[in-house]
Amino acid sequence: MIFSNLKKFIQKYKLHLSVWSIYIIYEVFILGLVSRSFRPPIVYVLIYLSNITVFYAHAFFLNKLLSNKNLKLKPVKISLLIAVIIFGYTLFSYYSGLLFIKLGFLTVNRVVSFDREFILTCIYRSLYYIGFATGYVYIVKSFQDQKKVEALERQNLVTQIEKQALENDLVQSQNNYLRSQINPHFLFNTLNFIYNDARKKAPMAADAIMNLAEMMRYALKRPEASEMVPISEEIEQIEHLINLHKLRTANTINLELEVSGDLFGLRFPPLILLTLVENIFKHGNVSHSTQPALIKIIYENDHLHITTINMINDNKGKQTESHHVGIENIAKRLNNFYSENYLFRYYKDPLNRYITEIAVDIVNPMARLNR
Fold first, then answer.
1. CA distance 246 to 13
2. What is the DSSP track for 52-69?
3. Per-residue model confidence as pLDDT tens digits over 239-281
4. What confidence tens digit (pLDDT) does each residue in 75-93 have?
C-alpha cells in the first residue's frame, strides 16, 4: 500500500522531483567541488527541506491570494506573506544552526549569532526561493488561463455550429412552410376551376363546392385557439355549414338562424359557435315539420346572448353521449376566456328539445379588435 501510494506520488510530481534533483545536485556537488568543502548530509537534508518548504508555502498562499477576486488588499497581503515567510525562514535557520552545533553536526569557531550578516543571508536565501515560487505560480496560471481560453474557444465553436444547425433547421422549416402554402393554393385553384365548370351544369354542386372551399380557407387561416376572432367570421362559417347541409338534403332541413345587433368589432372565442351548430346536425332532428331548429345570436347593451334549440333525435341512440363531449369543451373554453364573467347552461325541456344558452358581458367590444 505504501509503495503503491509512493509510486502514484512519483508519477504525479515527476517533473518537480526531476527539477529539484538537478538543482540540488548542482548546488551540493558542483559548488562543493568548486569550493572544496562539503557539509554533513543531515545538514543538506534540513537546509533543502526548509528551502523547498519556502518555495511551496509561498506558491500555495500566493496562488490563493491571486485567485481571490477582491483586488483591494491584494498587494498588502502579498507583502505580508513575503515578510512572514522571510521571518519564519530566518528563525528556522537560526535555531536549526544552534541545534546542529549542539548535536555536533557543525563545528564553528564562534557562537552562531543573530547578527546583521546572518539576517541578510537568510533574507537573500528566502527571497531567492520566493522569486522562483512567484515565477512558478505565474507560469502555472498562464497555462491554466490558456486552457480556459481554449475551452471558451471550443465552446464558442460548438455554439456557432449549433447556431448554424438551428439556422439550417429554420431555413428547412421555412421551405416546408412555403410548400405547405403551395398545396392549399393548388387545392383552392382546383376547387375554383371545378366550381366554374359546374356552375352551369350543376348549380347545386357548384354551391356545395364554394361553401366547402370557404370553410377550408377559414380553417387554414384560423388563429391559435388561445386568440379571439371576429364573431362575424364565425357566423359566416355557420352559414356555409348550413348551406352544405341544405344542399346535401335537398333543402329538407328546418333550421333558422337569427342574428341581431351591431356585431362590428365584436370578437369571440373560435369554434364555440361551430361546435354548437355541428352538434345540432349530429344529434338533433333538423327535419321536424313543426319544430324548427333555431340558432339565435343577439347583441345589445354590451350583452351577447347565444341560444340554440333543436328537437332531440331519439333514433341516434348512443350518439347522444358524445353530445356532452363538445358541450364540456365549450364550457372549458368559455371559462378560459371569461373566467366567471359568463353564463352557460344546457338542458332538455318537456317538449323533448335540447337547449343551450350562453350569456357574456362585453365591456368594450372595440378593444377586442387587437386582442
1. 93
2. HHHHHHHHHHHHHHHH-S
3. 888 888 887 787 888 999 999 999 988 999 988 998 899 889 8
4. 788 888 888 888 888 888 8
16: pLDDT strictly greater than 70: yes
The string of DSSP letters for 81-92 reads HHHHHHHHHHHH
Distances, alpha carbon 257 to alpha carbons 229, 235, 260, 274, in Å: 20, 9, 10, 13
Between CA 192 and CA 155 the distance in angstroms is: 55
Distances 250 to 66, 204, 236, 253, 339 between C-alpha atoms, Å: 91, 9, 21, 8, 42
Average pLDDT of the segment spanning 114-134:
84
Q: In terms of C-beta density within 10 A (0-12 exposed, 13-18 middle, 19 or more buried), how is residue 318 classed?
A: exposed
Question: Do 304 and 206 share a domain, yes or no?
Answer: yes
- Are 122 and 225 within one domain? no
Is there a single domain that holds both residue 103 and residue 231? Answer: no
Q: Say how many domains are in the chain.
A: 2
User: How many Cβ atoms from other residues are within 10 Å of residue 195's Cβ?
Assistant: 17
The verdict on residue 328 lying in a domain is: yes
Which of 65-74, 303-312, 335-344 is predicted least confidently? 65-74
63 phi/psi in degrees, rounded to 5: -60, -40
Same domain, 148 and 220: no
3-state DSSP helix/strand/coil % of the chain, to nearest 5: 70, 10, 20
Highest mean pLDDT among 185-194, 200-209, 220-229, 308-317: 308-317
Q: Are 114 and 256 part of one and the same domain?
A: no
What pLDDT shows up at residue 371? Answer: 43
Cell (9 digits) for 164: 448554424
Q: Is residue 37 located within the same domain as residue 124? A: yes
In the prediction, which pLDDT does 247 show? 77
Domain that holds residue 78: 2-154
Cβ-contact 118, 112 below 8 angstroms:
yes
In a domain, 147, yes or no: yes
Among candidate residues 121, 154, 187, the one where a domain is terminated: 154
Tell me, what CATH number does 356's domain have?
3.30.565.10
Q: What are the backbone dihedrals phi and psi of residue 221, each rounded to the nearest 5 degrees, phi first?
A: -95, 0
